[in-house]
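Re: export button greyed out
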Amino acid sequence: MGRSPCCDKDGLKKGPWTPEEDQKLLAFVELHGHGSWRALPAKAGLQRCGKSCRLRWTNYLRPDIKRGKFSMQEEQTIIQLHALLGNRWSAIATHLPKRTDNEIKNYWNTHLKKRLANMGIDPVTHKPKADALASAGGRQNKAANLSHMAQWESARLEAEARLAREAKIRGSAPPSSSSTSLGTPPRAAAPCLDVLRALESPTSTLSFSFASSEVTNNCSWQQLAAESSINGSLAVGFTGMTLIGNTERRSSPERCGDSENVAGGSGVEVEEDDGGTHEGEENRNYWSSILNLVNSSSPPNSSSPVF
DNA sequence: AAAGACACCAACCGCAAAGTT
DNA sequence: CAACTTTGCGGTTGGTGTCTT
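Workaround output, generated via the alternate export path:
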């Protein structure tokens, strides 16, 4: 692939994995755990580098991986989190149980990015393209708030991932329970959109935008979202999130049919003008969609260990 | 039917952070 | 605390299948 290969010096194999190699890796990890990835290939009898084994395991062989088409809800989650976090695929993956960061990244690059572009939304900024230049003025503060949120959320996710790892180590399930303990990214700990919880946290650096509001439940959240001072820029950036008007060639009919079930059927569409007259409604629609997403994706007794 | 274009995705690479000595 | 090793992440590539001309 153009660059100097890292494994050639040891005469290690590269390229697609064979079923035999998969079987060897799977059997070894299930029996012994991966331990040191670097040492694993020799122990497992594989002519691969440890990096390749780890990648194969985390992206393909792990038992808790869901493969196949992404649901509308998953698509929405990806887009919304990407708007917030950027290309932090591992962080995004923590909110999509059973999906790998690589899979999400691929899906974004091959499907969602193009779809947003077709809808006139810049997939990098998540703003309507015509609006990109106009935003340079009074919106900068709000954009800075969004950036701040993203940075904070990124840092928080990393901290949460570390905590989860440490907890896993302390809890130390035996190697035989490989499906839950081995090489699995710490994604189960955060099944909901944590930035919302972060905002709820009294110690959060994000709470400045909502300092005057007391938040106790999702209902309050909706009021809060509608009143919040930061979501003016957010809503502009997030319009069109429900992907109405999917222009992708291979889009499946059932996906379009699903769109009413997610985002509360709000059906926010891209607005060409940026007059701001509909922003309030868009804000509510957008935040409602996130809240619906959170509600529908969170197990009944799930609560972030951090908050 | 053949050739070219496009789409998809597994797997590679380099880099940086985290961990260990 | 520096040096070294290991792990994880994100960007990118190349092979393969599908679609279009």
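Residues 2 and 200 of chain A are 48 Å apart (CA to CA). The button fix ships in the next patch.
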